[in-house]
Amino acid sequence: MNPEKNGLAVDAEKGAGTPPAVDEVVPSENDILPHRARSFWKKLSQWGVEIRGIVPIPTEERTNSRYINIFSIWLAMSVNTLPISTGMVGTLSYGLSLRDSALVILFFSFLTILPAAYFCTFGPKTGLRQMIQARFTFGLYGIYVPIFLNMATVTGFILIGCIIGGQTLSAISDGNLSVNVGIVILGILTLLLSFCGFNIIHYFERWSWIPSLIAIIIATSCGGKDLSKQVVTEAPTPSTVISFGALIAGFFLPYAGLASDFSTYMRPDGPSWRIFWYTYAGIFVPSVLLMTLGAAIGGAVHNVPSWSDGYDRDSVGGVLAAMLGSAGGFGKFVVFLIAMSPLGNTAASLYSVSLNIQMLVPILTRVPRALLAIGVTAVVIPVSIKAAVSFFNSLENFIGIIGYWSGAFVAAVLMEHMVIRKRDFSSYKQASWNVARELPSGTAALAAGISSFGMVIPCMYENWYIGPIAKTTGDIGFEVAFCITSILYIPLRYLEIRVRGRL
């Protein structure tokens, strides 16, 4: 089968330009789907459902100049309850004051959003999805390791979004609607958006952040008078500050693993600085503000009886519902909007997971991407229901550990681009994207990344494990992963080039 025939109807970013003919974007006659199934997906593609998956986007199809779309999608992925719940961890779990939590959030967000913003500029220049572009660092087969980790990470964020949405829906009904049913509702809505593809997702996310932002502002206004009732805390230890910073890094660094997925249809001759700053602002501004709000809410929860009761009953959703309790029926409507706010993140994340599956199992490039989204949802819903039993422990453990591999991944891709390829985008040849002998072997990237964990493990600070170094320093695992991988990658990669005689 010719992989170039596996295309996508019209990606969300595409906007301008003439879309390829339907026959070129649906599975071909050599595909593994039965004839009737191929006809079914062909008809869906005519209705706007996206079919294409991971195939590189040729230059003539990179025609979109609406760069503001990049800002809107990151804004929609950030204006929701996920950053609020993450900020609550600082005051509830780490025992930091609101001031200390806010300073940690500000500093670590400022640094760890940079990789995602920079990698997003790669999409228009190369026409490659993020993990496909990473093949030019990890090789055709070595990339399977970060793809698997990235897929698990992004799926984890879908779980968190479904749990928070389900808890919030349950809080609206005063427990008459169970959290489990709420999770199922969020899961199905996420699937519906992702199933249609990025054309629909992008239209949804262009506007969905507006009601979400208004709802959060209303909730803050109604409960704002109680935010000053912060618990008294002791002076934080340096290790506690660093460990919470690692949690913030774990929230943002994984975005680098999917950043260019959302910019591949932008014009290659467009200004990279606009894409960088639209991405950075779309993540930084709402996330920092909402994480700080979450820290304020977490610090006041145990001093406000209604909030404490809501937290005990429905966790984050219960607190937000309690904040809006004085607004009566209108308050319940606002809580409903807040419950829907994670969809901006979960739909885009499910889209990326389905692409990752095709990269991990190449034969599935013959299967429509939308079909894979159904399979992921079938896994996400029951796992979300299980994880919701102990939400904050699940959240802290998940976000805490994903920063380690993300630090090593960012370091390897960054060193390859900045040092080895000297920022030359023409060296990422689309014709080589799926040809093992024309890609790096991946030995340098895997060796550098895996070797870094010899020092990462002693520097880990988790609920279930505290390394000997971390007992003194706090969690510095992601910093160590980034630094050691960067140091080791360059000489190992030059050695590989010398042995192979080419990039």
Structure explained in plain terms:
It is a single chain. This protein has 503 residues and is mainly alpha-helical. The protein contains 21 helices and no strands. The protein is globular. The two termini are 27 Å apart. Residues 1-30 have low confidence and may be disordered.
Rg (C-alpha, Å): 22 Å
Fraction in helix? 55-70%
Poorly predicted parts:
1-30
Q: What integer is the average pLDDT?
A: 87
Give the helices and strands as they follow along the chain. Answer: HHHHHHHHHHHHHHHHHHHHH
* Total of helices: 21
Bulk shape: globular
The main β sheet shows up as:
none
Name the structural class.
mainly alpha
SSE diagram, text form:
Elements (H helix, E strand, L loop, with lengths): L34 H12 L21 H11 L2 H12 L5 H15 L1 H7 L1 H5 L3 H4 L1 H8 L1 H29 L6 H18 L1 H26 L14 H15 L19 H29 L4 H19 L4 H13 L2 H18 L8 H19 L3 H30 L22 H14 L13 H4 L3 H24 L3
Helix pairs in contact: 2-11, 2-13, 2-16, 3-12, 3-13, 4-12, 4-13, 5-13, 8-19, 9-10, 9-14, 9-15, 9-16, 9-17, 9-18, 10-16, 10-17, 11-14, 11-15, 11-16, 12-18, 16-17, 18-19, 18-21, 19-21
